[in-house]
Amino acid sequence: MAGYLMSLDSADSLHLYASHGVYATKMGSPKGIWAGYHEGTFGDYATMRPDDNIYFFIKRKIYGIGKLVALAGDCKFQNFPDACVPQPVDYGSVKSQLLWDEGAFSADQRWLCTFRPDPHFFRAGVDMDDLLASNPTAFKMLRTFWKLTFTKFEDDENQAFRDLLIRQNQEFLDADPKDAEVFPANWQTEHQRIEALFEKHNYSLNLDPLLQTCAEGDRLRHEMAVEAGLLFQLSNRQPATASVFGTYDYLHHQVVASPFKPVDYIDKMDVFGYSYVPGFEPTKSRFLVGEVKKDEGLLQDLEQLMKYVDWVKEEYASGDYSMIRAFLVAYDFEAEAIERLHEVASRRYVIGRRPAVSREWKDLKLVRYRYDSSAKRLVFSVIS
What we know:
By secondary structure, the protein is α+β, with helices and mostly antiparallel strands. Helix content is 28%, strand content 27%.
């Protein structure tokens, strides 16, 4: 299962969220269009799934463990009806409809997720250095956690989080929720209150306002909006989108794809995901690697994407290119990128030992996107 690490600004916030089983990101107010970081945050929420773990980070320490839980079929929501519309909102006008209310700034806590302790949120946090030292090879996204509200990480990294927190709190695993060693748990009452509001209003995440306000005809002005739209549609397994890209059990974006170095210089994949072998989770069967361009896809973008493919082959796929599906998504493509696709996007490799088998990988597709205002979604088509 995936994990999420949320950065908080105070011990009071840690107590509030951990006790009530609700987390809502604090963001700046939009001004008629979402900024790139808003769109990235929406994309992060879009990929949340029940049973993913959640942790909190404050003053060098990490606290947990929680598990996302579904209310009325989902674990992430708008904080109030039409919260996905990028317009400033007066707190007083939405106060009665808020799922989560921390005061005036909750009008800009547009999205939230719901969770419960798993088994507890322990009061004894673990130091960041101790966590990194506990399993150095497991940590990728944690090493680049810099100036972000929260980050997401895949199964192996999530397990490393769980391992240390559980080891350091073994004596409290069966603690009563009222014990001093764990945060109090009022999540059931809070979740019931939230579910009661579902009967009056629609709080489901809505992709269309994000796309519509960013559109110039059928093109989007922000690459992060294209990423967010793709992630939303893949996470919801929309049939037309799945027919192009496939279906995936884990999805994320801006994922580390180079050896560790100063954060500003680290290469990141626009879209990354993987699928499990059905019935044998967490054994992985295939990987998604995607590069997104809001305008034209160039030959150099193909070459950059192939660097990511090579990285995933080494870091995740045990040298087996056949597990990887790669996509360059753009509004259009330069002629040279189309002409040289099969030359650039090709790898010879050997799998097995006795016997060793030589194979060729060419599973990279050029995918054109369009914003369809009638369907209120992105439409994808393979051109090569």
